[in-house]
Amino acid sequence: MEERNLICINCPMGCALAVTMNGTEVVKVSGNTCKRGDIYARKEVTNPTRIVTSTIRVTGGDESMVSVKTKEDIPKGKIMDCVKALKEVTLNAPVCIGEVILENVADTGTDIVATKNVRAV
Amino acid sequence: MKNYDIVIIGGGPAGLAAAVSAKENGIESILILERDKELGGILNQCIHNGFGLHTFKEELTGPEYAGRFIEQVNELQIEYKLHTMVMDIRADKVITAMNREEGLFEIQAKAVILAMGCRERPRGALNIPGYRPAGIFSAGTAQRLVNMEGYLPGREVVILGSGDIGLIMARRMTLEGAKVKVVAELMPYSGGLKRNIVQCLDDYGIPLKLSHTVVDIQGKERLEGVTLAEVDGKGKPISGTEEFYSCDTLLLSVGLIPENELSGGMGVELNPVTSGPRVNESLETNIEGVFACGNVLHVHDLVDFVSEEAKAAGKNAAMYVKSEGITDRPASDKGKKPCVRLKATDGVRYTVPETIHVDRMADTLTVRFRVGGVYQNCFISAYFDDERVIHKKRPVVAPGEMEEIKLTKEQLEKYPDLEMITVKIEEA
Ligand SMILES: Cc1cc2nc3c(=O)[nH]c(=O)nc-3n(C[C@H](O)[C@H](O)[C@H](O)COP(=O)(O)OP(=O)(O)OC[C@H]3O[C@@H](n4cnc5c(N)ncnc54)[C@H](O)[C@@H]3O)c2cc1C
Ligand code: SF4
Q1: Residue A99 CB: number of other CB atoms within 10 A?
Q2: Which of A50, B4, B252, B323 has the fewest CB atoms within 10 Å of its CB?
């Protein structure tokens, strides 16, 4: 049995988690205050994922950049591919919060959505 | 001169939540004054996620979180003016503001809510010797440049200070293609949230050097590098520990201070620890009918708490306006019995509020504070005069994370002669 210590990143409480592993199998999670901590710990030791946030250039709007995010968390190893894919995109205003900007970014099965409104000028 | 019941200074999350709450509590005549070109305050440049878990039960980015409140302000048809800088507020609640269309103008308010937020500590306050070449930015300025202007200030970066904005920018600049070499922190602990150390530094293999500072800056025109050294317990560099890092950019993330020039000018009493106004249970300052909330009151790391606090301030301001003309105004100090004072000691640096009128307090009151150091396995205690009433076990408390205790009206009413509540850290 092996124990791994993690910090839950799901909320600012930042609970200190202890994951007991048997090889690659999770036996027990402790230290979490809520259910999200348990889910996070199990994912983090098998397939760690993150939400990625970035910006994309916009033309013809009242802002020159629009902020975006991955709709769901994507595998950690895909973060750089995801950011690279965003660099190749330029949008035309208007852009609305929640609008899908890019589907299935970097083959993650997750879409990129806008997180800010940009009005056309 | 135009008249409004409530005028709110600042259209960031605090100002927006206060406005929504005042409206929901029956006030029609509300005006928000904002100097920027849009509402939302500093959240517009905080494009990362992690906002709103408490308020909306989902994890939003800064602009999305602001967007929710802007929507409410629009739905409730609350009036606001953008590009409008408030220049002065008088104790009789006459506000002087300026914008391009109206020039300099005055507004009379019945109640004022201060929600001007905070600003970053200027770099001049830092004791770094040497030249000041181009390439030194505050972390907030870099955040604005990257996220709003789409401009990457440099390629090789060193960050001084481990506050949340610095940590967030370490990740942001890495994703934009820069090489963040190290984050140096003067204190033996980080000033930021643990989750940000994990997901902004550890995820990208960026080292965090605690008890380190910048002792030298190289480069005349453009920054060429910095020298870091370890510091001793008193913050003095230890000779022989110097290490050179070549870099073209140095970000300073050395803390925030509430923006209180206006408050000071109108005679609002400030607490030297927080640099924010001293307030009572209603978040009302020493000037009747002048309330404060958000980062102008004390620096928050979590916008959810800003919204919660602002909601209370908006409600209290509404109650104050509605009670106008009633001689025994519930929101007034006059003729009331003395209030309960709160004292921060033994590791607790300050409390917000600092005084409580039990008859005026809501059923539960959240007292927020910060601690001065890292304490493990300790208790947060509150003494009602000499009796220990609250004794809350905490595995760890740190200066980077705001703490709170809740007081109930019922609980306080059991102590009619109570004079002082002392909040302190007790080690186990
Ligand atoms: C540079 C910076 C970056 C930050 N990054 C993060 C982060 O990444 N994550 C996080 O959780 N928190 C962050 N914070 C903390 C964040 O500011 C708070 O959580 C929250 O935004 C505070 O809300 P507020 O409304 O009190 O202040 P603000 O959002 O600062 O809003 C204050 C508003 O008042 C306006 N104002 C000020 N003075 C005047 C005047 N005289 N006349 C008219 N308008 C005026 C300002 O323009 C501004 O819009 C950051 C703070 C700063 C300063
Ligand atoms: S376990 Fe729950 S409470 Fe603790 S940090 Fe994770 S999400 Fe927050």
Answers
A1: 17
A2: B323
> What is the percent of chain B where pLDDT is above 90?
81
Chain A residues with CB under 8 Å of B397 CB are none
Q: Whose CA is nearest to atom 4 of ligand 1?
A: B165
Q: Is B148 on the interface with A (CB under 8 A)?
A: yes
pTM for the model stands at 0.91
pLDDT tens string B102-154: 999 999 999 999 999 999 887 654 667 667 789 999 999 999 999 999 999 99
Which of A60-69, B10-19, B121-130, B415-424 shows the lowest mean pLDDT across its residues?
B121-130
pLDDT band at residue B287 using 50, 70 and 90 as cut-offs = very high
CB contact under 8 A, A97 and B148: no
Q: Please, are residues B15 and B34 in contact by the beta-carbon 8 Å criterion?
A: yes
Q: Does A117 touch chain B (CB under 8 A)?
A: yes
Burial pattern A74-84, b for ≥16 Cβ within 10 A else e, equals beeebbeebbe
Residue B50, pLDDT score: 87
pLDDT digits (tens, 9 = 90+) for B350-378: 999 999 999 889 999 999 999 998 898 99
Q: Whose CA is nearest to atom 1 of ligand 2?
A: A37
Residue with tokens 């205790």, as numbered in its chain: B405
Phi first, then psi: what are they for B201, rounded to 5°? Answer: -105, -60
Which pLDDT score is estimated for B398? 86
Which protein residue has the closest C-alpha to ligand 1 atom 38?
B116
Q: State the distance between the two ends of chain B, measured CA to CA, in whole angstroms.
A: 60
CATH 3.10.530.10 segments of chain A: 53-114
Ligand 1 site residues (CB inside 6 A) read B 9-15, 33-36, 41-43, 46, 85-86, 115-118, 120, 140, 143, 164-165, 168, 256, 259, 262, 294-296, 300-303, 306
Spatial distance between the Cα atoms of B175 and B361, rounded to a whole number of angstroms: 47
Q: Which of B64, B193, B199 sits opposite A115 (nearest CB)?
A: B64
Pick the CATH number of A53-114 from 3.20.20.80, 3.10.530.10, 3.40.50.2300, 3.40.50.720: 3.10.530.10
The answer, for B269 touching chain A at a CB cutoff of 8 Å, is no
Q: Write the single-letter amino acid at B388.
A: R
CA distance B135 to chain A (A): 22
- Residues B128 and B239: their CA atoms lie apart, in Å, by 16
